[in-house]
Amino acid sequence: MKKVLFIILLVLLVTLDAKAQCAMCRAVLESEEGQTAAEGINNGIIYLMAIPYILIAGIGYAIYRKFYKTKSA
Q1: CB 66 within 8 A of CB 72
Q2: What's the pTM?
Q3: DSSP string for the chain
Q4: What residue ranges do the domains of the chain occupy?
């Protein structure tokens, strides 16, 4: 169990900076001066990508807690 928690903690703490844009968005945003809109688009994509993973992790934790609670009681 401690190995699993260590691996999860390691994955959450060691992150790489990701730039995620489709080809059309990138072409339009690269021509702009200042790159503020491109940063906003990147942040929005990362935000939208993270929400489903957070929800799945929460549901998985709730299921795990429910089964663990019934076994220990």
Answers
A1: no
A2: 0.48
A3: -HHHHHHHHHHHHS--------HHHHHHHHTSSS-HHHHHHHHHHHHHHHHHHHHHHHHHHHHHHHHHHHHH-
A4: 19-72
- What span, in angstroms and rounded, lies between the C-alpha atoms of 44 and 12? 20
Q: Residue 8 has which token pair?
A: 């999860």
Task: Give tens-digit pLDDT for 15-36.
Answer: 766 665 677 777 777 777 777 7
Distances in whole angstroms, Cα of residue 38 to Cα of each of 18, 23, 41, 72: 13, 12, 5, 51
- Contact criterion met (CB below 8 Å) for 22 and 44: no
